[in-house]
Specification:
The protein is α+β, with helices and mostly antiparallel strands. The protein has helices at residues 4-25, 31-78, 84-125, 155-166, 179-184, 201-212; strands at 135-137, 141-144, 172-175, 192-194, 217-220, 232-235.
Length: 243
């Protein structure tokens, strides 16, 4: 018999497939088609996020119950009423529930970044190409067409810079090609996405560091003006559609 979590995930998988088909259309040549595709992609993403929000609410309840159960077993163990194995089993269940919750939150954030990127690239598509070595900014996105060649071999250096400057790990949201990029038909093999707002202190320092080394980037401010959700920095050239 199929488990309840599996049944819940199926509609979400279908939504991702639908998003992938729409995202492929975003590579169309004409602005009218591009605009329509972005609008469709945004609407489908919002529907997908609503499905995830429902799942998130269920997972939050599961996580609370699992943690409560783990705490109960820890108390019983302290009284000598259950074994260490019982406690470890309950703690593993609680950890798994937290992982499921974090995964859904991550997918919601990923979907928001898709919207931010699609809408910003639509804006850039209506403008003349940015010359090599120059930068262009709109309210939605900053594009720097750096002359240097970027490869993922440089990620370690970028991580060291960020850790030394801010005392924490570089918040990488996508390193190279991911399953999401495969679904959406984008070649992200040589790109890095970083979950920082370009206008934050971390974002400004990161962009200046990239400029000083001539590394190309796209810095997305978010899908909704004034709201940071979806904001991130894409290091490397824009991801082309896979042929």
């Amino acid at each position: 018999m199929e488990s309840t979590p599996t049944r819940r995930r199926r509609p979400l998988g279908l939504a991702l497939v639908a998003l992938g088909l729409l995202a492929c259309v975003v590579g169309a040549a004409f602005a009218e088609t591009l605009g329509e595709a972005v609008a469709d992609l945004t609407a489908a993403t919002r529907e997908y996020q609503e499905s995830l929000a429902h799942l998130l609410a269920l997972q939050e309840q599961d996580a609370v119950r699992a943690e409560t159960e783990a705490e109960r077993y820890r108390t019983l163990f302290a009284r000598g009423l259950v074994s260490r194995r019982d406690v470890e089993t309950a703690e593993r269940a609680a950890a798994h529930a937290r992982e499921q919750l974090d995964g859904t939150r991550g997918r919601m954030a990923e979907a928001e970044r898709v919207v931010a990127e699609a809408e910003a690239l639509l804006t850039l598509a209506a403008l003349p190409p940015t010359p090599v070595g120059e930068e262009r900014a709109t309210p939605e996105v900053v594009e720097y067409r750096g002359p240097s060649r970027w490869t993922l071999d440089q990620v370690a250096s970028l991580e060291r810079f960020f850790a030394q400057r801010f005392g924490r790990a570089l918040p990488v949201s996508a390193l190279g090609q991911t399953a999401l990029h495969d679904r959406f038909g984008f070649d992200h093999r040589n790109a890095l996405d970083i979950a920082v707002h370009p206008d934050s202190p971390e974002g400004r320092a990161l962009l200046q560091h990239l400029r000083s080394r001539g590394v190309p980037f796209l810095a997305f401010r978010g899908a909704v003006p004034g709201i940071s959700t979806g904001a991130h920095v894409h290091v490397g050239a824009p991801s082309p559609r896979k042929s």
